[in-house]
Specification:
By secondary structure, this protein is mostly helical. It has 8 helices and no strands. The relative contact order is 0.09. The N terminus is likely disordered.
Length: 219
């Protein structure tokens, strides 16, 4: 009985992909392909941070930034980006959570290391950067997350900075952190593509000027 040649099934190519067959060496030995490198946990975390950093910069420049452009800026393939963030919405929400937690953690660190007014201004500057993301992604963020999750910790972060300034007399006594948060919320409404940076600086000057203590008899 003649032996019938083996063939691949209907859905399998007769020449397997990535085969290292060399047509110049008939019947030569097959070359074993190198083992696939599986990214380590450290590599994955590094890629994730690079994607978040690139996305933050891209969305600050344009709310319509594409995922492929973000992947290129991060120096990773689009497949790597999708492994970490399966959709544009997932990336935006993670960036929102990442930046909010950064702001909450940053406030006490600044209060412990900087004079009160400097700490407040630096922190407000970081809030302004977050506001650029919020402007471009507000609908996605509100649809996917609940601000209540971070509201109380955020208010406590503001309160710590205000108490720091009140203690040395550079800020007014009895300031309400929720009032300050309401003032800062105007930053979410500034379009970064229409002279937003200069307007942010002017608004922050006005807010801080209103929070500063004044010597008796001055206005």
């Amino acid at each position: 009985m003649k032996r019938r040649p083996l063939r691949y099934g209907p859905n399998v190519p007769e020449t397997p992909p990535f085969c290292n067959f060399n047509p110049l060496i008939p019947n030569g030995p097959a070359i074993t392909p190198p083992a696939h490198h599986k990214p380590s946990r450290k590599d994955a975390l590094t890629n994730r941070e690079r994607i978040l950093t690139a996305a933050r910069d891209a969305f600050a420049a344009s709310s319509s930034a594409s995922l492929s452009a973000i992947a290129r800026q991060a120096g990773v393939g689009i497949g790597t980006l999708y492994r970490h963030f399966p959709s544009r919405e997932a990336l935006i929400v993670e960036l929102y959570r990442h930046d909010i937690q950064h702001l909450i953690d940053l406030a006490p660190a600044l209060a412990a290391s900087r004079p009160p007014l400097e700490a407040l201004r630096l922190w407000f500057g970081e809030v302004a950067r977050y506001g650029q993301l919020k402007y471009g992604a507000a609908e996605v963020i509100h649809a996917a997350t609940s601000d209540e999750e971070y509201y109380e910790p955020f208010v406590r972060a503001i309160a710590g900075l205000l108490d720091h300034g009140a203690a040395d007399g550079s800020l007014k006594q009895g300031l309400d952190p929720e009032d300050v948060l309401l003032q800062l919320s105007v930053l979410w409404r500034i379009d970064p593509e229409r002279g937003g940076e200069a307007r942010v600086e002017r608004i922050l000057d006005l807010i801080i000027d209103g929070l500063q203590a004044r010597p008796p008899g001055t206005h």
